[in-house]
Amino acid sequence: MITIFHFIAFLGAIIGFAGGGVISGKFFGMIGGIVGVLLGAYIGLILGRLPGFFSTRLLIRDVRWKTTTELQAILQVNQFYFFQLAIAELAVRGEDIQKERSYVLELLVSDNYAARVCAWQTLRYFFPDAAKQIVEYQPKDSLDICRIKTRGLAEMT
Q1: Smallest Cα–Cα separation from 66: which of 40, 31, 92, 104?
Q2: How far lies 12's CA from each of 30, 52, 83, 156, in Å?
Q3: Mean pLDDT for the chain?
Q4: In this structure, are residues 87 and 100 in contact, taking their beta carbons and an 8 Å threshold?
Q5: Contact 17, 5 (CB under 8 A)
Q6: How far apart are the first and last CA of the chain?
Q7: Nearest Cα to Cα of residue 91 among 115, 129, 125
Q8: In contact, 97 and 90? CB cutoff 8 Å
Q9: What's CA 79's distance to the chain center, in Å?
């Protein structure tokens, strides 16, 4: 999945590529231009990745500061994008995450592709015993195929 942060990093690399080539080529000739293009693209990529880095750090910090009740509320209101972070934080705190297994299994057969991807990642990381039972599962498959592949997991809830 491509996000705005990937686009910003790509844009930073392109701007660095062009800027480094023009500026160093003007002062140092063709060899300097080649070095400037490479160095500019690298620096631009690094700078372009900073917004994504800082936003991720802020999100993680925000999740860590939430109370256990707030984290459990995230798990109940269909915020599957934050589901993995919330369940990870609950696991780190020593809370019982086994009761969330049924919701993860429900998301495996969601109409929403992104929900299926998040559920599959969560299942693999936090419920590996269930994931081993459906190793052939692919979130990109059609909804009917996902339902067929997860049919045996209904008894595990």
Answers
A1: 92
A2: 23, 12, 30, 47
A3: 87
A4: yes
A5: no
A6: 30
A7: 125
A8: yes
A9: 14
Q: At what angle do helices 4-65 and 80-92 cross, to 10 degrees?
A: 40
Taking each continuous run of H as one helix and of E as one strand, the counts in the chain are 7, 0
Token pair of 26 as six digits: 């003007």
Q: What is the DSSP letter of 150?
A: T
Mean pLDDT of 26-45: 92
Asked whether the beta carbons of 115 and 80 are under 8 A apart, the reply is: yes
Say whether pLDDT at 132 is over 80. Answer: yes
**What does the alpha-carbon distance between residue 149 and residue 109 come to, in Å, rounded to a whole number?**
10
Identify the band that residue 17 occupies on the pLDDT scale cut at 50, 70 and 90.
very high
Q: What angle do CA 128, 130, 131 make, to 5 degrees?
A: 60
Answering whether pTM is above 0.70, one says: no
- Closest alpha carbon to 36 in 55, 50, 52, 15: 15
80 has pLDDT over 80? no
pLDDT at 51: 96
Determine the pLDDT at residue 145: 83
Say if residues 52 and 5 touch (Cβ distance below 8 Å).
yes
What's the CA gap between 75 and 59, in Å, rounded?
16
